[in-house]
Amino acid sequence: MTPLDIKKQTFTRKWKGVDPQQVDSFLEKVAREFEELARQNFQLQERLKTAEERVQHFLLIEKTLQETLPSTSQAI
Known about the structure:
Number of helices: 2
Shape: rod-shaped
Strand content: under 5%
Order of helices and strands: HH
Number of strands: 0
Helix content: over 70%
């Protein structure tokens, strides 16, 4: 479901039904909040991707150091 799906949602009218303006207002509010959450989710996914890339970089550095340290201690 997308914010646009929420905005385009329609309801059938019945006798003594709900106020259409209240429904429209509520759907607009839900759509705005949904859109904000989707934006935040995207930003967090991007931050996670960056953090994972940095972790991989540091793991590679750690591996290189672990492989290098034994040979340097033998040379001393």
